[in-house]
Amino acid sequence: MSTKPAKVSLLRRTAKRLFTKAGRREAAKTSLAKTEREILNLNLWIESRNSDAKIRYWVGGSPEQLANRKATLSAKEYARYVSEAERNFRAYKLGYIARLNRMETLLSTSRKLRARLGLDPLRH
Q1: How far is it, in rounded angstroms, from Cα 33 to Cα 107?
Q2: 109: enclosing H helix or E strand
Q3: In the chain, what is the straight-line distance between the N-terminal and C-terminal CA atoms, in Å?
């Protein structure tokens, strides 16, 4: 049985991984896989909501949905529904923009990791 604390052993393994060339390559490989997976997921999400009309559909504010609601709701309830749909649209749009920014960050990270692994050298 080891007399060293587990924390010290873990720190040594982590340091060895980060401060050797092979360790950095291994860390880059695992990080690249995670980054690529997140890029694919974000890309699918963005493609399904890449226009205002699609976003309005997701939040319940498309013209067809509004026409159906107008026929079934009273004027007061319809006005509340429309204002809620607009509020949801604005919030969803901000989330969409945040995801686009995250996608840009992930793409630049992916390029850097690929360059570190020698898979796709950066072009200056």
Answers
A1: 12
A2: helix 75-117
A3: 53
Could you read off the pLDDT of 64-114 as tens digits, one per residue? 888 888 899 899 999 999 899 889 888 888 998 999 999 999 999 999 989
Alpha helices in 4-74 (DSSP H): 6-18, 21-48, 52-59, 63-72
Burial of 66 per CB tally in 10 Å (0-12, 13-18, 19+)? middle
Query: Which residue shows structure tokens 């890309």?
Result: 43
Closest by Cα among 116, 122, 120 to 29:
116
- Tens-digit pLDDT profile for residues 58-75: 777 788 888 888 899 899
Q: How many residues appear in the chain? A: 124
Q: How many CB atoms lie within 10 A of CB 4?
A: 8
Distance in angstroms (rounded) separating the CA atoms of residues 38 and 106: 8
Residues 6+ apart with CB under 8 A from 19: none
Cα–Cα distance measured from residue 20 to residue 67, given in angstroms and rounded to the nearest whole number: 64
